[in-house]
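Quick one: sequence plus zinc ion SMILES, need structure tokens.
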Amino acid sequence: MQNKNRFKRLVKNNCACYLGAKHGIPNYCCLQDGPCVFFSQNDALPRCTYFENGVLPTDEKLEREYTSERNVGTEFKTAKPRVNCTRCGETFSANSNRQKYCEKCRDKNANEKSKLRMRQMRKSRLDVTL
Ligand SMILES: [Zn+2]
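Reply:
Sure thing.
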């Protein structure tokens, strides 16, 4: 993570909890009652709820970097149920747990069903008129 300096700058300029040097502590954070987590020697990006909710949204570009770096908010989007197609048996990721057919078979199935429906209808009509 080479961009930590940009996060530090954002904290310095926009974080309401960042008070600079205070009580003899450099980069003092009033929430931590100690140094701001972004100014630790650690290379990894720290987590700070106040920063994520109140400071980060002011910098759209940095926010995108931050979320892609730690995959914040993407855990749920990828959780699609794996289902075996009832028709061809192929495994596919369904959009809902009621989906029974893969994309290829869904169209074929709909076609066949409507064909069958039409045949039935014509037959019953003939029965009536004859
Ligand atoms: Zn299928």
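The helical segments are 4-14, 49-55, 60-70, 103-129. The longest strand covers residues 82-84.
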